Amino acid sequence: MDKFFDVPSDYAKKGQHFGVAFLLIGAVTAVAAAIEPLTATAFFSALTTFIGTILTMWATAVQERRANADLASASSRAAQAEAKAAESQLQLANYRKPRALSEQTALEISKAAMIYRGQIFSGLVADGVPDARPLWGQLVTTLQAAGWKLAQPRGLSVGSPPAGVPIAPGVGITVFAPIYGDARAKSAAVDVCNALVAAGLVTKLEAHAENGRNLIVSIEIGSRPL
After folding, report:
1. How far apart are CA 203 and CA 215, in angstroms?
2. CA torsion angle 130 131 137 139 (round to 10)
3. Are 187 and 116 in contact (CB under 8 A)?
4. Which of 210, 177, 179 is nearest to 194 (CA)?
5. Shortest CA distance to 202 belongs to which of 107, 103, 91?
6. Shortest CA distance to 125 belongs to which of 221, 225, 21, 29?
7. Where does the chain have alpha helices with state H?
8. Integer Cα distance of 73 and 91 in angstroms
9. Mind giving me the DSSP string for 59-108?
10. CA 17, CA 120: separation in Å to the nearest integer?
């Protein structure tokens, strides 16, 4: 019942006007009945027809208004679904696009790393990730251009430039800062991590506590983020 009477305010006002008109017509009918019963009967019959027509028109207008509202709502939902589909397609395209450093991105990372000239770093590259090793190669070239020195990774070393193979690689890139010892290496790790994030690469900072490697910043190229 509440939904039935939930009509636009303009229709409610029209309904009020009709009500006043009906009251006036009813008063006229009563006067006519007192004067001439036959005339009153004919007038009342015409009035009934008139009222039925007005009510039918009013109900049709309400139904049309509701239909238009439903159509607008359906169109809005369709537009939202289309926008979500386009966003999903863009995310899929970005996922298929290999991670890589543009010339400008490499320059920005080099600028951030240059103040730590002489910093030692090593790498870990996830096995079976197509774009991991090419990205590692670009990153090594960029850091070496900034004066950083590549160290042999601990344990198994594969590829050129050499990198270790993580047992359980993380998602995206992880920059490991030494938890003990050299404060300069910690700052270098933070700045390089921030530069990678600014370049649009999913990167996080973590700490490592490997004995004898307190001067080394380690960078892991992990699996692709979804």
Report:
1. 21
2. -150
3. yes
4. 177
5. 91
6. 221
7. 9-35, 37-96, 103-114, 132-145, 183-198
8. 27
9. HHHHHHHHHHHHHHHHHHHHHHHHHHHHHHHHHHHHHHSPP---HHHHHH
10. 87
What is the spatial distance between Cα 201 and Cα 198, in angstroms, rounded to a whole number? 7
- Rounded Cα distance between 172 and 99, Å, is 10
What is the chain's pLDDT, residue by residue, as a tens digit (226 residues)? 554 445 455 555 555 555 555 555 666 565 555 666 556 566 667 667 767 777 777 778 778 788 788 777 767 776 676 666 555 454 544 545 889 999 999 999 999 999 999 999 999 999 999 999 999 999 999 999 999 999 988 778 888 899 999 988 899 999 999 888 789 999 999 999 999 999 999 999 999 877 667 889 999 999 998 7
pTM of the predicted model as reported, rounded to 2 decimal places: 0.58
> Do 104 and 68 touch, CB atoms closer than 8 A?
no
CA–CA gap between residue 156 and residue 170 (Å, rounded): 18
Give the C-alpha separation, 175 to 206, whole Å: 6
- Cα-based torsion angle of the residue sequence 64, 70, 75, 80 in order, rounded to the nearest 10 degrees: 160
The pair of three-digit structure tokens given for residue 23, joined into one six-digit string: 């009251």
Q: Which two tokens stand for residue 98?
A: 């290999």
CA 142/CA 76 separation, integer angstroms: 48
SS3 150: strand
